[in-house]
Amino acid sequence: xxxxxxxxxxxxxxxxxxxxxxxxxxxxxxxxxxxxxxxxxxxxxxxxxxxxxxxxxxxxxxxxxxxxxxxxxxxxxxxxxxxxxxxxxxxxxxxxxxxxxxxxxxxxxxxxxxxxxxxxxxxxxxxxxxxxxxxxxxxxxxxxxxxxxxxxxxxxxxxxxxxxx
Length: 165
Fold this sequence. Notes:
By secondary structure, the protein is mainly alpha-helical. It has seven helices and three strands; from the N terminus they run βααβαααβαα.
């Protein structure tokens, strides 16, 4: 059976940051809430299986919350940055927590759907200089980060080939 890698860059970090800056005490939902996120994966897994393919999920890479916050608030006033930080509970770590919530949901979903998952998160967390794995925006992978992910995918590919033999 052919394997299909399912890599989706979406996470719960896509908010209307301008609206949050304008109203930090208000209720703000991500553009892709957790229910929709899981449904997106469930549908993609079902589509792969319907085509006779074995779906393989890929975990989310890590983020650098401080760099992401700087990227989100670039061009904003000092007050707008303070408002977003207030909404985040006073710490940029809330960005990492939201991201990890979605990543953990992905691992649970893989278990419930009985599909393999390539864990690219753990080797990134184990890296002494994880910041070198990410670009300045704190989210997208640098060439070193892409190399690490590609190595993890190659390792899984060789393991699956051995299991299939």
